[in-house]
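Hi, here's the filled form for the chain we discussed.

Project: internal
Contact: R.S.
Residues: 220
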Amino acid sequence: MSLKAQLEAIIYAAETPVTLEQMTQLVKDSVVAAGAADDAEVKSRVRFSLEELVGEYGSPDHGIEVRQVAGGYRMSTKPEQHEMVRSFAKSLKPPIRLSLPALETLAVIAYKQPATVPEISEIRGVDSGGVIATLLDRKLITTAGRKQVIGRPILYKTTKEFLMRFGLKDVNELPSMEEFEKLVAESFQAELSPAEDAAQTQDTGPEQPEEITESAAQKE
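And the returned structure, exactly as it came back:
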């Protein structure tokens, strides 16, 4: 991957403006491997590639630009595209809010599909019937016929909406169960504000499931 492509990827992925120094440290090893003699040359090459990148995105052919903001660089839509982007943003569906039990149930269905409610409940250790209705309502799962056993329970599977919401090409792109559980745990913790943490510590009543938000990172 070229140095310019690396810088482009870093700026795109950054949640906040990323500085020249930060980018230099991130790409230092690859720049040295490409022949840079010392730190001064590494920084010079990074700066030159960054200027080229800024220039390319400044072309009328691009709807976004690389701007210097708060001492760093970030990507943003060009001013002339703001009205179009604003209209598009208004047309987007609001982010889905799911409780932790709903996410657990969705994970079981995603990895074990098609699956019945008794099978899902056995894996989770609690009744999952009520959560299924929520997932059906959000169009994240759908029915997949009936299992040919006594009682012929309904089978459930994930939908195209599920793939779209989680940015997957197909279910084969799902991370391992361990990775998925880690991602869910990290997302769950990230949603808890310090105030919520304090409230949980003081609360002596029944535990309530916290909600976490599933949404794609959106660029300005």
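Let me know if anything looks off before we file it.
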